[in-house]
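Re: that chain you flagged

S.,

Sorry for the slow reply, it's been a week of failed gels. I finally had a moment to sit down with the sequence you sent. For the record, here it is as I used it:
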Amino acid sequence: MNYSVAVKTAAAAEPITLDEAKLHLRVDIDDEDLLIEGLIAAAREWCENYTRRSFVQRTLELRLDCFPAAIKLPRGPIISVTTVKYLDQGGTLQTVSASDYQTDLYSVPGRVMPIFGGVWPPPKYGSLNAVVVEYEAGYAHGAGSPTELAENVPSAIKSAMKLMIGHWFQNRESV
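Prediction finished late last night. Pasting the structure tokens below so you have them in one place:
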């Protein structure tokens, strides 16, 4: 099944702060801050693409041509499903009531299915991207601080990012 996933709202922060990266790199001066910030973002993007996950909370939009039995939500972990919409037979975007579907936020990938005994409404026949699911994905912010967006990102991911940042910092030419 063809699908596309787009970032609707970007991550508000990186899993690793500039200070954490500089400590790992043993850099004391501020001359390289812009470069290091770029390396942090590049390492996050590379690791997210490799693991097919979202590290820091953001809003994603999944587009499908039709409703499958179970909509699989890529780029988890899934925090919540915001809306499920579809193009009706007249070509108007309609919202499926949240009471008409169930969400599984614990499986990998997360899933959305009609409630027991229910069925998805028929989207407009022959339309591309007729089904649109908006959802929140990423490791949720820490319970102690709603501004600490990277607190629940696993340590192994942060360590892998630091190793990549260190390698790219030391080897600035192609290898």
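What I noticed first: The mean pLDDT is 92.

Talk soon,
D.
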